[in-house]
Design goal:
This protein has 293 residues and is of the alpha/beta class. 36% of the residues lie in helices and 16% in strands. It is globular, with a radius of gyration of 18 Å.
Length: 293
């Protein structure tokens, strides 16, 4: 008999799912394991061979099961901070314990040649960006396949509050032919959602729309990549209309967004990675949506 229910948050994708380019100040780092938020450490869980998951108190380092980049203002780290703070302050929202799964590597997509492609040869080479080489799709499926038994062993029920996909941006580049996207992209994402549904009983799946067309215009005056990016967003939105458990999240709804300027007020100086303030706003929206449902 289950004794307690856990909320499970999943963040998948590429560099903005890692929190690339936004290192934490020392005062904000989560160095002591949390009491009510838990994660999967790379050291104990980064393997295709394990038959069980090893949870431990969440920290802001060592918890992304893919790329080795720690102590960033990522959405998972900020959500963990908010969640534990609410519980520490009396838990007026009635939050259960939170379990975080983060699997992300920078500069990746789902199309052929990238680490999220479902038919990529299985491999797992750990390391930092530039060295790390993991077949992310089968690895994520492997981790998901162990979740149910993992919580049963802890005497707990669990609810996946959302699988958040913050990636696919690399699929927009001009070397990716538009004809390829039109032929394959919807099918690739449909396959991903279908496989995850089968493993986790149709959890909420949230596409984060690729933000800020102005950014692409700065980088690519031909507009070819911009057209690809808008097409990718159209696939995300199409799937959110086709499938009941799929939705689209648009960061351009945040209060920091300023149209018509380079970076739109939501990106760092590199005009690629979201600011800590934007990631905090996203984490707040995720917590709010869960608390209000």
């Amino acid at each position: 008999m289950t004794q307690k229910k856990a909320a499970v948050f999943v963040m998948l994708g590429q560099s903005n799912a890692v929190g690339h380019g936004v290192p934490m100040e020392e005062k904000d780092k989560l160095l002591t394991p949390m009491k009510n938020v838990f994660g999967l450490s790379r050291e104990k869980n980064q393997s295709f061979d394990h038959t069980a998951l090893f949870w431990e108190g969440y920290r802001s380092f060592g918890m992304n099961l893919a790329e080795e980049q720690d102590n960033t203002y990522s959405v998972p780290n900020l959500l963990a901070t908010l969640w534990q703070k609410h519980i520490n302050e009396g838990n007026a929202l009635g939050l259960p314990d939170l379990y975080i799964v983060q699997i992300a590597i920078g500069a990746q997509g789902i199309t052929e040649g990238y680490m999220w492609h479902p038919d990529r040869e299985k491999r797992l080479i750990p390391g930092k960006l530039g060295t790390v080489d993991i077949s992310l799709y089968p690895f994520t499926c492997h981790i998901f396949s162990l979740l149910r038994e993992s919580f049963a062993a802890r005497g707990m029920d669990f609810e996946v509050m959302g699988i958040h996909w913050r990636g696919g941006e690399n699929d927009m580049y001009a070397e990716t032919k538009r004809e390829y996207l039109e032929e394959h992209l919807e099918g690739l994402y449909t396959r991903m959602i279908t496989d995850f549904d089968a493993l986790l009983d149709t959890p909420p799946f949230v596409f984060h729309l690729l933000a800020c067309p102005d950014r692409t215009l700065d980088c690519d005056p031909t507009g070819y990549s911009l057209k690809n990016m808008l097409y990718i967003n159209s696939v995300f939105e199409l799937l959110s209309h086709k499938r009941e458990n799929v939705s689209a999240f648009d960061v351009r709804n945040c209060p920091y967004f300023v149209p018509g300027v380079r970076g739109n007020g939501i990106f760092m100086e590199d005009v690629v990675h979201f600011t800590p303030e934007v990631n905090l706003w996203v984490a707040e929206q995720i917590l709010k949506a869960y608390a209000e449902k």
